[in-house]
Specification:
The chain is an alpha/beta fold and 252 residues long. Helices cover 35% and strands 25% of the residues. Helix 2 runs parallel beside helix 4 and helix 4 runs parallel beside helix 5. Bound molecules: adenosine-5'-diphosphate and magnesium ion.
Length: 252
């Protein structure tokens, strides 16, 4: 396993907008089967990094590789549906007038499969995640946990083995968050996923992830295990960030 190709690799990725440079020289890799936390203050570049991996943004320079393949070659940019990635965001793009099934199906666009196979897969997943029978409900008729389950089904369309979670649980209460973390862990293991988890809740990130990549102002400040960050912080910011998040959690 240790000599397996990285599942995800970013090499010197830069992202510039007209307003300035949002990501400077981002380099990291994630091995198959890893669960990695991507942390950092607001505006650090966490969402943008996930969007670059998912193919929703193009890097200005640098490489995004999945299973060793370059996703952003000059002549060939891999579309989101061709990357095997599923993205879950907090503000799920749920249209108030669109039911859960339409939302789930929107994640299967561009997948080469018959509508029977697609429907069978969606129904199997709904059974497994215990939301079967609720697929015709509108977003406001579902609990936060149920919306989260539909978002996971959408992200885990067949062939998607990379799960990108962008603060997916922020709108949930602590009990629902705990349930979702357990569910994500189970799906990760059973479906042999590789997972990147962005969260403000450090305790959840710790319970789910073995490794951390810490960003600030569009740069990777440190990556390693929780122990590395705690006992070998490369600069005071790392210690302050972990301490601040802990204090923040305690006063909430
Ligand atoms: N489409 C865009 N146009 C201009 N700036 C952007 C765009 N998307 C993101 N940014 C900037 O990139 C930086 C990182 O944003 P983001 O990845 O959303 O941060 P966060 O770590 O909070 O998820 C921010 O400074 C943000 O303003
Ligand atoms: Mg964000």
């Amino acid at each position: 396993m240790s000599d397996a190709l990285p599942k995800i690799e970013l090499i010197r990725v830069v992202k510039r907008f007209e307003t300035g440079t949002a990501l400077h020289d981002i380099t990291f890799s994630v091995k198959p089967g890893e669960r990695v936390a991507l942390l950092g203050p607001s505006g650090a570049g966490k969402s943008l990094t996930l969007r670059l991996i998912a193919g929703l943004e193009k890097p200005t320079s640098g490489q995004v590789r999945i299973d060793g393949r370059l996703m952003n070659a000059l002549r060939r940019f891999f579309a989101p549906s061709r990357r095997g990635t599923g993205l879950v965001t907090q503000d799920m793009p749920l249209h108030p007038q669109r039911d859960a099934l339409a939302f789930v199906r929107s994640g299967f666009r561009g997948k080469k499969m018959s509508s029977e196979d697609r429907n069978r897969y969606i129904h199997e997943m709904m059974d497994r995640l215990e939301v079967a029978g609720k697929e015709r409900r509108l977003p406001h008729q579902l609990s936060g946990g149920e919306r989260g389950r539909f978002a996971l089904i959408r992200a885990l369309a067949p062939g998607n083995r990379i799960l990108l979670l962008d603060e997916p649980l922020s709108a949930l209460d602590p009990h629902q968050r705990e349930e979702m973390i357990d569910l994500i862990r189970t799906l990760h293991d059973e479906m042999s996923l590789t997972t990147i988890y962005v969260s403000h809740y450090i305790e959840e990130a710790q319970s789910l992830c073995d490794r951390v990549i810490l960003l600030r102002n569009g740069r990777v400040i440190q990556q390693g295990t929780w122990m590395d960050l705690k006992y070998k912080p490369v600069e005071p910011f790392v210690r302050d960030y972990l301490a601040m998040t802990t204090r923040f959690r305690m006063v909430r």
